[in-house]
Amino acid sequence: MTYKEEFIRFMVDSGVLTFGEFTLKSGRKAPYFINCGNYKTGAQLAKLGEYYAECIKDNDIPVETLFGPAYKGIPLAVSAVVALSNKFGYDVSYCFDRKEAKDHGEGGMFVGKKLTDGEKVVIIDDVMTSGKALGESMPKLKSAADVNVTGMVITVDRMEKALDTDFSAVQQAYKDFGVKVYSIVNINDIIKAIEDGVVEGKEYLDAMRAYRAQYGAEY
After folding, report:
1. Which of 102, 114, 142, 202 is catalytic?
2. Which GO cellular component terms are attached (predicted)?
3. Mean per-residue pLDDT for 60-66?
4. Residue 142 is labelled as binding a ligand
5. How far are the Cα atoms of 25, 72, 160 from residue 16, in angstroms, in the given order?
6. Which of 34, 57, 97, 114 has the smallest number of CB atoms closer than 10 Å to its CB?
7. Could you tell me where the DSSP H helices lie in 34-183?
8. Which residues contact 104 (CB under 8 A, 6 or more apart)?
9. Given this model, what pLDDT does residue 163 score?
10. Mean pLDDT over residues 82-92, rounded?
11. What residues have CB less than 8 Å from 190, skipping those under 6 apart?
């Protein structure tokens, strides 16, 4: 299997990707659901980091530091930076932000690598629903130094229109911030994996294709 197919099976085995009928926060009724909160063991986190590392290497994203937005992005960035070192020999730095700046000890808004002008930073997060995390991260990063945000890596691109636009959250992020968002897999990869028998779920294919036809963004 390709690493994308392996990742889709990994999501299903971890209970992160499930099929059925789910009402999303948007009010839409979706035939699949992604709950990244179900990654909860050391083995899962180690494996997840390897998939982030594969995505960074596969897309040849220039990187010197991985940034994990608090709180969910912190363990993701840590797992990815370890995997880059262990699997590919890339020794890159990492940092994360505090929700509130610290005014004692080392102080400041960031923990980990002290950012410098021109530094190539990749943001690591789980999924992108609205682009809010990126919108909050960019001014924080730019306030620390004039960094070069070379990309953002997420697990799954739903390729779904936001409520008030024909663009997906990934497309809107590029439009608003000039940041390319890379995903380990997208919904088309998931549909193909079901078609090819990589994972179970053929009984949901019609509903998934219909949902994609109704709400999918054009890529």
Report:
1. 102
2. cytoplasm
3. 98
4. no
5. 17, 15, 19
6. 114
7. 42-58, 73-88, 132-144, 169-177
8. none
9. 81
10. 97
11. 8, 17, 32, 156, 208
Q: Is 173 annotated as a binding residue?
A: no
> Tens digits of per-residue pLDDT, 24-38?
888 899 999 999 989
The token duo for 109 is 């808004």
Reply yes or no on whether 202 is catalytic. Answer: no
125 is in an annotated binding site: yes
One-letter amino acid of 41: T
Catalytic one of 4, 47, 57, 104: 104
Give φ, ψ of 127 to 5 degrees. -130, 165
Q: Is 131 annotated as a binding residue?
A: yes
Q: For each of the domains in the chain, give its residue range(s) and CATH number, in order of start.
A: 3-215 (3.40.50.2020)
Per the omega criterion (within 30 degrees of 0), is the bond before 71 cis?
A: yes
**Known catalytic membership, residue 29:** no
- Say whether 130 counts as a known binding-site residue: yes
Strand ranges for the chain from DSSP E: 17-23, 29-34, 65-68, 93-102, 108-112, 120-124, 148-157, 181-186
pTM of the complete model: 0.92
Distance CA 207, CA 190 (A): 13
